[in-house]
Automatic annotation (TrEMBL):
<dbReference type="GO" id="GO:0004177">
    <property type="term" value="F:aminopeptidase activity"/>
</dbReference>
<dbReference type="Pfam" id="PF01321">
    <property type="entry name" value="Creatinase_N"/>
</dbReference>
<keyword id="KW-0378">Hydrolase</keyword>
<dbReference type="InterPro" id="IPR000994">
    <property type="entry name" value="Pept_M24"/>
</dbReference>
<dbReference type="InterPro" id="IPR050659">
    <property type="entry name" value="Peptidase_M24B"/>
</dbReference>
<keyword id="KW-0645">Protease</keyword>
<dbReference type="InterPro" id="IPR029149">
    <property type="entry name" value="Creatin/AminoP/Spt16_N"/>
</dbReference>
<dbReference type="InterPro" id="IPR036005">
    <property type="entry name" value="Creatinase/aminopeptidase-like"/>
</dbReference>
<keyword id="KW-0031">Aminopeptidase</keyword>
<feature type="domain" description="Peptidase M24">
    <location>
        <begin position="136"/>
        <end position="337"/>
    </location>
</feature>
<feature type="domain" description="Creatinase N-terminal">
    <location>
        <begin position="4"/>
        <end position="126"/>
    </location>
</feature>
<dbReference type="Pfam" id="PF00557">
    <property type="entry name" value="Peptidase_M24"/>
</dbReference>
<protein>
    <submittedName>
        <fullName>Xaa-Pro aminopeptidase</fullName>
    </submittedName>
</protein>
<dbReference type="InterPro" id="IPR000587">
    <property type="entry name" value="Creatinase_N"/>
</dbReference>
Length: 353
């Protein structure tokens, strides 16, 4: 069953007879269209991509299962006409992506009843196709290569920004784009900042350096974190590294289909909590990756979801001590029929440069 058929099978449960998709990422996922403007309309027997003059030719070349229709940019009345032609009376919309102003405009213009949907397209994006997995693996591979390269370059006196620039340039030279997220390069005491964006701080002897970065292949993301030491690190940071490494290893050994996300969150956090650092691990334990670097599903203690084959996600335990530094190790993993495949091949043992 193709994607459109699977989407339509959900209409009855949602009490809708059509869906309007305005999220740029969801539009890209559904249609393959990479332009920056467009609305997707799907009914029980029709599927249209509405875009303006700038993108009609591009859309016609990129889109297969959708009929491309040209409309005037931001013309809600034209969208209303297409809804009427498609026979949509109960229109689902993406509640996470439609602004209040847009909703008000639609409500005043459309004859169709507006019905909010929650993470509708995102729920289909969680399990990847073989083609999507191929693109993610390509992005992961160049990220691994960039990490191996930076190990030969990074040294005392180099700034965090210079490290970030070197990683970015390597990825670009290899023919890929860097991740959409700002690159994290945080050294010394700054490594206690989970999202410490690269600064002009110079790397000093004994600094832990956390690097969180990735690449894009056909818009699909990788997302890896490694922490290395430039010179011998303080003993407490070596201890922390060992704890984080253990948490990641135990988690990877536990990954399999049908494991609940709540259980997974507990497995990741338990070794860190037992070591007395639970309060120093204050962020999410992982997330899905795909067209977005952070996407469903998210590993949280209150999630009701379960792991399914072909989900691709990160596992990223960390410990952060203000004034001293921090450690995070993040792998990209593919859930398989019987367990998982670790996609990131970069070494996880403590590297002292």
């Amino acid at each position: 069953m193709n994607l459109l058929s699977r989407l339509r099978d959900s209409f009855e449960t949602l009490n809708i007879d059509g869906i309007l998709v305005n999220s740029s990422t969801n539009r890209r996922y559904l249609t393959g269209f990479t332009g920056t403007a467009g609305i997707v309309l799907i009914s029980k027997n029709d599927a249209r991509l509405l875009t303006d003059f700038r993108y009609t030719k591009q859309a016609e070349e990129q889109v297969d299962e959708f009929t491309v229709k040209q409309i005037e940019k931001n013309n809600t009345s034209e969208i209303a006409k297409h809804l009427q032609e498609m026979g949509i009376a109960k229109l689902g919309f993406e509640e996470e992506h439609l602004t209040y102003a847009q909703h008000k405009n639609f409500q005043n213009t459309f004859a169709a009843k507006l019905v909010p949907t929650k993470l509708f397209v995102e729920s289909f994006r969680m399990q990847k196709s073989s083609q999507e997995i191929k693109f993610i693996k390509e992005a992961v591979n160049v990220t691994d290569e960039a990490f191996n390269h930076i190990l030969q370059v990074i040294k005392i006196g180099m700034t965090e920004q210079e490290v970030a620039n070197e990683l970015e340039q390597y990825i670009k030279t290899a023919g890929f784009a860097p991740s959409k997220s700002s690159m994290v390069v945080a050294s010394g005491a700054r490594s206690a900042l989970p999202h410490g964006i690269a600064s002009d701080k110079k790397i000093e002897n004994g600094d832990m350096v956390t690097m969180d970065f990735g690449a894009l292949s056909q818009d699909y993301c990788s997302d890896m974190t490694r922490t290395v030491s430039v010179g011998e690190p303080p003993s407490q940071l070596k201890e922390i590294y060992s704890i984080v490494h253990k948490a990641l290893a135990e988690c990877l050994n536990s990954l399999k289909p049908n494991l609940t996300i709540k259980e997974l969150d507990h497995i990741i956090r338990e070794p860190i909590e037992k070591a007395g650092y639970g309060e120093k691990f204050g962020h999410g334990a992982g997330h899905g990756i795909g067209l977005d670097v952070h996407e469903e599903l998210f590993i949280t203690s209150n999630s009701t979801k379960r792991l399914l084959p072909n989900m691709v996600m990160t596992i990223e335990p960390g410990i952060y001590i203000p004034g001293l530094g921090g450690v995070r190790i993040e792998d990209d993993v593919l859930i398989t029929e019987n367990g998982c495949e670790v996609l990131t091949m970069s070494p996880k043992n403590l590297i002292v440069l």
